[in-house]
Amino acid sequence: MLRKASAKQKQSMKIFISYIFKNLIIATAFIAVTLTFIVFLTQSLRFLELVVNAGNAGAAFWTLTFLALPRFFEVIFPLSIMIATIFIYNKMTLDSELTVLKAVGHSPFSLAKPLLLLALIVALLLWVITLWLAPVSLKNMQKMRHSLTTEFSSMLFREGVFNQPGTGLTVYISKRTEDGTLSGLMIHDTRDETKPPSTVLAKRGMMVAGEEGQQVVVFDGSRQSFDEESGILQLLTFDQYTINLPEAGPVTKRWSEPDERTIFELLRPNMDNARDRENLRNFSIEIHRRLASPLLAIVFPLIAICALVVGPMDRRGQAKRIILAVIGIMLIQGLFLASYNIARNNNLGLVMMYILTLGPIFVSLFFLSEKSENFRRNILYKAKGLKEQSA
């Protein structure tokens, strides 16, 4: 009989875990999609003006916005699973489901099992996003923004006018089509004082954003330069010719910021590059941040469920506990961001990162364990005994 009862209890436990796990997934997914949509709208406003000014197609607008999303998932997912935890478990409390489950012998830890499973899955997904997907998408987004900025710059070249994008450079355009193609170009270049001035004539051309900065690529034309010392006019015909446009500083290859690098790039910086050598500490801090931040997807729901299932339950609602849990979560999130900023100058910030993530996990697991439950019972028993003695 005992074996049959034990088998039935295990079966009911599996059904219970499956039931809560399913509800948590649905709620977390719904909240995550809602928050993602809100972030999508806010980010789209940032790129709308850039895309419109560059005269680009709507595909560029959607691509830019979607590339901006992955870096927000490390905030969206922990908040989503935390809100889902509060909603599902509080609803089960109001419906007396958790009260019945605790009455038949289920411990707080067993009630939290489906949540722990989902939190671990979300944390693993976040590690993939933060270590690889988010930096790759951010890097591509920055490249695309740079390309659109270049296209916007090409729109500043007016037709039928001698434009001067920089000192010593004059550009004339006969016509500019809707797709950004330039036709009837004349480019007079006197920037290099060590070389004779040159004039480029081309049938068509376009503005591009290369690794070396903004450039004008022209096709089917000629390049003429006159050497005053020798009195020789040099003529070069070409199918394709590239001219660098002046920028605010020297034309150099764009340096990738720490948040634009994958974990493999952060672990293997280019020691031949001066900026890489100067930013070794920033690379190290970025690695620690990416390892620690996904743990918040476990911390937030654990704090929420401890507030809802540990101790006596109130069928009328547990608003006070929920408010305290939310305040605690906001405090941890704020301190985590502060620790990241502190880490730039002091190793104490790195220690704080791991204390703020690993500490609440171990404390929450203790509160959910049977040892914690026995500890609370002993305290209540002693307090009750003292009251009887004083009476």
Question: What does this protein look like?
Answer:
The chain has helices at residues 2-53, 58-68, 73-94, 97-103, 108-155, 263-267, 274-278, 280-292, 296-309, 319-342, 348-368, 370-390; strands at 162-166, 169-176, 182-189, 198-210, 213-227, 232-244. Mean pLDDT is 82; it is low at 248-252. Strands 1-2-3-4-5-6 form a six-stranded antiparallel β-sheet. It is 62% helix and 16% strand. The longest helix is centred in the first third of the chain and has 52 residues, at 2-53. It is elongated. It has 391 residues and is of the alpha+beta class. 26% of the residues are buried.
Low-confidence stretches: 248-252
Average pLDDT figure: 82
The H-and-E topology, N to C, reads as HHHHHEEEEEEHHHHHHH
**Beta-strand percentage range:** 15-25%
In short:
The chain is α+β, with helices and mostly antiparallel strands. The protein is built from 12 helices and 6 strands. The radius of gyration is 32 Å and the shape is elongated.
Write the layout of secondary structure elements.
Layout: H1 2-53, H2 58-68, H3 73-94, H4 97-103, H5 108-155, E1 162-166, E2 169-176, E3 182-189, E4 198-210, E5 213-227, E6 232-244, H6 263-267, H7 274-278, H8 280-292, H9 296-309, H10 319-342, H11 348-368, H12 370-390
Question: What keyword list fits this structure?
Answer:
single chain; 391 residues; alpha+beta; six-stranded antiparallel beta sheet
